[in-house]
Amino acid sequence: MLELRNVSLFLEEKRILSNLSMEFDDGKRYVVLGNNGTGKSTIANMIVGVERYKPQVGGVYLDGKNITSLGVYERAKLGITIAFQESVNFEGITTFDYLTLGGKIKASYNDAKRALELAGLNSEYLKRRVDDSLSGGERKRIELASILMLKMRYVILDEPDSGIDMMSLDTISRIINTLNSSGVTVITITHREEIARNGDYAYLICSGTVLREGVPANIASYYKKLCDRCDHPNEIVESSERAEA
Ligand SMILES: Nc1ncnc2c1ncn2[C@@H]1O[C@H](COP(=O)(O)OP(=O)(O)O)[C@@H](O)[C@H]1O
Ligand SMILES: [Mg+2]
Hints:
29% of the residues lie in helices and 26% in strands. It is of the alpha/beta class. Helix 8 links the parallel strand 10 and strand 11. Adenosine-5'-diphosphate binds next to helix 1.
């Protein structure tokens, strides 16, 4: 189990996360839902171990062990990874090499083809170089395909549809469900309530803390009703307002 235990994070003296606790059991599909600016990507960065986002209070735990001091690379070795909201790390190698980490992943051409197709690109792209000649959306799809190739224990998808025109709900669900059926715990971050419905458990984030948690359909409906018109995403909510939905 992966946990955030009562974490608080301050960046430049601003409180970004406030006494936030979350649990991620193995093999489930989680959703982290919330308006823009509520702290979702910050949570993702904290889970994967980005240095700047280490909590000043509380900690990150894996199977009961405190892993707060571990960096991104060490956590990746423990099976925790992310597809960032903004694509990163492109080096001009071919898509096939990118997807197989230059041969480090034992995978066939067909495995790569299947992953790419699941992310909505045809196999022509396997020969293409991953560089500026690709659109942002194509790069993002290739990154999602690469996540499908990795055998990770926890995968965070931060706004998987961001920057991709016409990324259908279906495609996102298929990626989540494919990962999950191979045993991966998927944590999908989104501000879209319809995406949040495809999960086993949901957390609603407001002002850097968990406002509600529970059945995705209930959380999504609550969000739609109350958070749509919310104009105070940066006020810290008292932890006593946290409730099960
Ligand atoms: N490196 C940083 N330095 C200062 N403030 C930051 C930094 N990263 C995020 N924030 C602030 O933290 C808040 C939450 O941001 P973020 O986690 O990206 O929200 P979300 O992903 O929910 O849209 C925002 O107010 C943002 O400006
Ligand atoms: Mg974000």
